[in-house]
Amino acid sequence: MKGCGSVVLEELDKREALRYMGFGSSAPDPGTLALLEECEKRLLRVIKPCFVYRCFDIKAGNEGVEVLNTDLLLRGKDIGSHLSGCCKCILLASTLSMQADAVIRQYEAVDMAAAFVADMLASAAVEQVCERAEDRITAELTEFGDLYRTWRFSPGYGDFPLDIQGKFLDILDAPKRIGLCANVNNILIPRKSVTAVIGLSEEKIPRARQGCSICNMRDTCGFRKRGDHCGA
Amino acid sequence: MGLKELSEKKEFILLDGAMGTMLQAAGLKMGETPEAWNIEHPEELYKIHRQYVESGSDIIYANTFGANRHKLAKCGYPTDRVIKEAIRIARSAAEGYDTLVALDVGPIGQMLEPTGTLTFEEAYDIYKEMVIAGSDADLIVFETMTDLYDLKAAILAAKENSCLPVICTMTFEENMRTFTGTDIAAMCLTAEGLGVDAIGVNCSLGPKELYPVVEKITKWTTLPVVVKPNAGLPDPVTNLYNCGPEEFAELAEKLLPLGIKFIGGCCGTDPRYIKELKKMVTGRKYVQRNVQIPAACCSATDVVVIDQPRVIGERINPTGKKRFKQALLEGDIDYILGQAIEQIHAGADILDVNVGLPAIDERAMMVRAVKALQSVVEVPLQLDSTIPEVMEAALRVYNGKPIVNSVNAEEKSLNTVLPLVKKYGAAVVGLTLDENGIPKTAQKRFELAKKILDRAMAIGIRREDVYIDCLTLTASAEQENVMQTVNAVRRVKEELGLKTVLGVSNISFGLPSREIVNHNFLMMCLTSGLDLPIMNPNIDSMIATVRTYKLLTNIDKNSVDFIAHYGGEGSGPVKKAEAKPVMDLPYAIENGLKGEGADITAELLKTTDAMVIVNEMLVPALDKAGERFEQGKIFLPQLIQTAGAAQACFEVIKQKMLSEGGGGVSKGKIILATVKGDIHDIGKNIVKVLLENYGYEVIDLGKDVDYQTVVDAAIENDVHLVGLSALMTTTLVSMEETIKLLRKNNVDCKIMVGGAVVTPEYAEQIGADFYSRDAKQSVDIARQVFGN
């Protein structure tokens, strides 16, 4: 079905999870590798990853970027520059499903190391779901096939406020269609979920300029300390 | 006319179609609050309702789906006004027709605990407000629910604050579950138990895809069934749905033979769809269903049908267990969760939960335990308490259909427990004893079983929901009466047709080789018709007896389950002692070997003082791992595995100290909390494991913790080190506020802070005493504070 769907992941991105855990270029120990295998199996058995998206026309205004036909206004200079030159945007929401939260919770009750590994693996997995969703968008929105696409920009990046999460999800009908909500503190629930804005432009889009410079975490980021980056 | 008369008069009851998509067609912007239109554009609502009324809807849903205080916060109108207005508009649109007006209630829009942060009690309050505001309606509809827990809060709010009939529908996906994993049978068992009037499915899919969902619903409820499908799914660009009115009605027609009573449309449908439905049902007869719902209990995700022996794990119970009592006194929920998971791995189908201890607030602990258990285990629970207030509190917060343990044939018990069982739709264990104690003979116990059954059925409890416990007496004291129990089990099963339950382990009390007596007695009882042995599944011979019974009675077809458990190499029920590699404690800890670490510790404790083991072996091994972590030689998962192994060793030491009547190991008390508004707690939990393994006593306040809770806990427990964690820039302010409040109350404690977004500079700025970079550093800080 167009605009909404489930994703079957055959495997989870263990390399990425190891990177999140801080292994960098070091070879992981057998214990961690075994945990990764176990957590991957357990997660794959129960998660029901899915996504929902919609495409809107946008218009840059004084207070932010207006998403037409909705009452959503994308505020902040960072989302503004992300969408500069774009005529449309896609609002995308992906989730690994609440079964992922349950697995992590179950591990937390008996084995913190496994809980940690499962948490990192689930974080990597939700990015995989977004990638798959983008593939589906490409296949489904053929009428916009000749437009250039920006990368995914999420609420909370730079000065793009988190407090639009609720409205963002309402517009996609995400609570009903993929079971994704935001709580009063704008935390996505299920936890391993992503909302993102993808711009569509007739002009070629210059390579991402922002990277770490706009990130809230730039002062404390463990990746940066090691000369690495998180990949967002 | 009310719902009852309408049901009697009509073969089928037609509901209305979509409201949201109709409002959008009338100009509602996406993201706008549809219920605000009750105040701002009542004429548009009138038009939509009127079209449905004229198309043939017998019930129209007022525009109140999201009129809860949480969703209305966006537009500023109060729930009461929005709902009253909505019902008034719907009523005026129904003028001249017999059409009923429903108070329509959708999910709050926030997920409940344990996945979300909204508590069950808060959800209840929100629904209660809506129910009271909607008292002018003819009925209450809860729809588009995806979480059984949310639905339970809603149903209770309706039943306790209104006399109106209640219809509830959930949204199921193609995998036959809701997004939160709620099983169709679990919805039916739970909602019917709570006393709703009709049950079914809405939204989610089109009428074609919903067929298997509807089919399953019709098999799991005796109530009228409701179906309100979507017109397919919307296109991502045009937002148009893909199933037209004629096709919709044709597909819906195929659902009639399943025995549905209510039919309407959800997203994407409009008055044309209702007209087609009306045409389609005209002249058709309602198909009566004759369903027999089996004896079963459930969580939201797991339904356990009592159609063969099911094991009830008995270990969550402090009776005779010092370590368990200690855990209750310390509020150590993790210990209880560990006991639960161990039993499930061993083969328990259901878990008994008893947290009764005179020194604690049993009610509060029961609620905490039930909530914590249902956040990590999927098996149904058997709630076990002798205090009715505790039982009711547990029944309220339980998500699913539990078993109540127990009622007995005493008048007082029958009069207090059975109404609770009925109200909350539980199953119940009936003990065959009364004011005169446990009767000696099988005949007398059989009579008491019958009395309990009659009394239960007299107040509307289903026969299938009464499980009888004929009570085990100890063979050492009353050898001549053992067979009375076995015979009573047989008679209750055969003559009353009831399920039977029995705690078996008591049989061997006071005898040597208890295990041998227990599993043989268990086999005798199973053969005589025992359905629900309450036992310790962790004992191999006990669970093996149940598996053997199922094999020999052809329940375990082709011995699949038996072979799965005992068919592999060396996996027999009786494990031979394996030769262990030569290993010392530091090696086991460094390599994260929990089982080995625990075994070595137990061995060492025979010759070595506990504190010597802690200070000279455990702590140095942890220090070494910590150093290697700081040097980048090992990484966080390894550090946590090390800590996990040390934790297993500590557990052994703790058991030993308690059995010798001493206290635990405590080098100092530390409070840990993830600050208010933040629910990222994995980092805090890692810190906790490490601190505990250095011998610190951690009071874990959890996540999203109120400022005042931290202050109260610090004062009450005389704590001198508080650790606060935050992972979001938006919750850093909560960290600052918590510190301010601690200082304002002059709490004599040091404060350490940490979490991804915290910097040393920020820590200093908000008045923390220490910034902790990682779990290892928090241990260094604790050592500095406590000087050990």
Provide structural commentary.
- The complex is a heterodimer of chains A (232) and B (788).
- Chain A has 232 residues and is α+β, with helices and mostly antiparallel strands.
- Chain A has a single domain, classed as NADH Oxidase, CATH 3.40.109.40.
- Chain A contains eight helices and nine strands.
- In chain A, helix 1 (14-20) packs across helix 5 and helix 4 (98-110) packs antiparallel against helix 5.
- Chain B has 788 residues and is α/β, with parallel strands linked by helices.
- Chain B folds into four domains: 3-281, Homocysteine-binding-like domain (TIM Barrel, Alpha-Beta Barrel); 304-564, Dihydropteroate synthase-like (TIM Barrel), CATH 3.20.20; 585-659, Orthogonal Bundle (Methyltransferase, Methionine Synthase (B12-binding Domains), Chain A, domain 1), CATH 1.10.1240; 669-786, Rossmann fold (3-Layer(aba) Sandwich), CATH 3.40.50.
- Chain B has an eight-stranded parallel β-sheet with strand order 1-8-7-6-5-4-3-2. Chain B has an eight-stranded parallel β-barrel with strand order 11-12-13-14-15-16-17-18, surrounded by six helices. In chain B, strands 20-19-21-22-23 form a five-stranded parallel β-sheet, with helices on both faces.
- In chain B, helix 10 (211-220) links the parallel strand 6 and strand 7 (225-229).
- Chain B is globular.
- The N and C termini of chain B lie far apart (77 Å).
- Residues 574-580 of chain B have low confidence and may be disordered.
- The interface between A and B is large, with 66 and 66 residues.
